[in-house]
Automatic annotation (TrEMBL):
Belongs to the cytochrome P450 family. Keywords: Heme, Iron, Metal-binding, Monooxygenase, Oxidoreductase. Transmembrane segments: none annotated. This is Cytochrome. InterPro entries: Cyt_P450, Cyt_P450_B, Cyt_P450_CS, Cyt_P450_sf. Pfam families: p450.
Length: 410
């Protein structure tokens, strides 16, 4: 627990998400916050909101802006806005209405449920190909060998990225993910900005080619997406494609990695899913709740507001603890217990309100296929370590590696 002793001997709570213990196990800290100070002003000058009902209220309140919650270290480069800031300023994630409303409406015309479902059979093939490569080895790292390459392959296929370009795309997506990672040292700014520039230049050429020769892919669909006379600008097209990689990869990697760790630590629940593969949809929802890939949403108050009896003044930053809300006993009975049959699981793993994750359907499909395939094809899966290392990222919760054994196929 993060505490500090005052001069009179009284021990007070100090929330610091940058400490290693937070990344290892944030849940005791969340419990303390919800119980003792659910609307907490941290020593970092950030309001911390931890209860489910308060987080939902905040996610739906237009006075809490996404547009002003960017990571500042990329904000200047030789006196002009950096590529990352230029990217963020056009991004759906970091826009408020009416701009957000317009962008989401246009993107949804191309990135819809029908398109996601049409990817299902291809995702099954991708998963089987990845498992074919490791099945004879008897051991694997679920992150490096499986959960990280899967979304890169899926999103590449969805966008229509040529096979020959996908290895380079993997490198770009690695750097783009740092946009959401304030834990990295500031000297990573150059590498991230360079990746943004290179990926942007690549997409400019690919989009130009698709304008001339449309294909049955998402880039072509985004080009053609219209709402009456409105359509995505060139910059908005670029940003939509780039951020689809950065966010879509991280969400799926961590859904699969965190989900498999949770199952392997709860063998009775794992056996229940092995015996009943049709439970997978409900299981994935519970795994998303139990170890949410996205733990914290950042917002900025653009007007003063009251939440949970406290006033948040205009201009102050706010952290919404999705991971804590998803363990709130007022919403989820016995919240620290993994229960794959949990009913009415209205978790916040994909957010809520106008910024609810546009790609949640694709992440769910990949998670369902990947987890079911892993436990059915490799039924003897066992953890190689009881203490896998968590990545140092205050917003995203995911593993550095997840080594497992499963016995060689005879």
């Amino acid at each position: 627990m993060q505490t500090v002793a005052s001069q009179n001997g009284k021990v007070t709570f100090k929330f610091n998400p940058f400490l290693p213990e937070f990344h290892t196990d944030p849940y005791p800290i969340y419990t303390h916050l919800r119980t003792e100070d659910p609307i907490h002003m941290s020593s970092l000058g950030i309001w911390i909101i931890s209860r489910y009902t308060d987080v939902v209220q905040a996610l739906r309140d237009p006075r809490l802006s996404s547009a002003q919650s960017h990571i500042s270290r990329y904000s200047r480069q030789q006196g002009t806005p950096s590529p990352v800031v230029s990217l963020s300023s056009q991004c759906l994630f970091f826009r408020d209405p009416p701009d957000h409303t317009r962008l989401r409406r246009l993107a949804s015309k191309a990135f819809n449920a029908r398109v996601m479902e049409e990817m299902r059979s291809r995702i099954v093939n991708f998963v089987n190909e990845l498992l074919d490569r490791v099945e004879g080895a008897g051991t694997m790292d679920i992150i490096a060998d499986f959960s990280r390459p899967l979304p890169v392959r899926t999103i590449s296929e969805l966008l229509g990225i040529p096979e020959a370009d996908r290895s380079q795309l993997k490198q770009w997506s690695h750097w783009l993910a740092h946009i959401f990672d304030p834990m990295k040292s500031s000297n990573l700014g150059e590498e991230v900005n360079q990746a943004v520039l290179e990926f942007r230049d690549y997409l400019i050429d690919l989009i130009a080619e698709r304008r001339q020769h449309p294909q049955k892919d998402l880039i072509s669909a985004l080009i053609q997406a219209r709402d009456e006379q409105d359509k995505l600008t060139e910059d908005e097209l670029l940003v939509t494609c780039m951020l689809l990689f950065a966010s879509g990869e991280e969400t799926t990697v961590n859904l699969i990695g965190n989900g498999m760790l949770s199952l392997l630590r709860h063998p009775h629940q794992l056996e229940k899913l092995k015996e009943n593969p049709l439970l997978i949809q409900n299981a994935v929802e519970e795994l998303l709740r139990y170890e949410s890939p996205l733990q914290i949403c950042g917002r900025t108050a653009i007007d003063s507001l009251e939440i949970g009896g406290k006033t948040i003044r205009k201009g102050l930053p706010v952290f919404l603890l999705l991971g804590s809300a998803n363990r709130d006993p007022e919403q989820f009975p016995d919240p620290d217990r993994l229960d794959l049959t949990r009913p009415d699981n209205r978790h916040l793993a994909f957010g809520d309100g106008i910024h609810y994750c546009l790609g949640s359907g694709l992440a769910r499909i990949q998670g369902q296929i990947a987890i079911n395939s892993l436990i059915q094809r490799l039924p003897a899966l066992q953890l190689q370590t009881d203490t896998p290392e968590w990545r140092e990222n205050i917003f995203l919760r995911g593993l550095q590696a997840l080594p497992v054994t499963f016995g060689k196929r005879r």
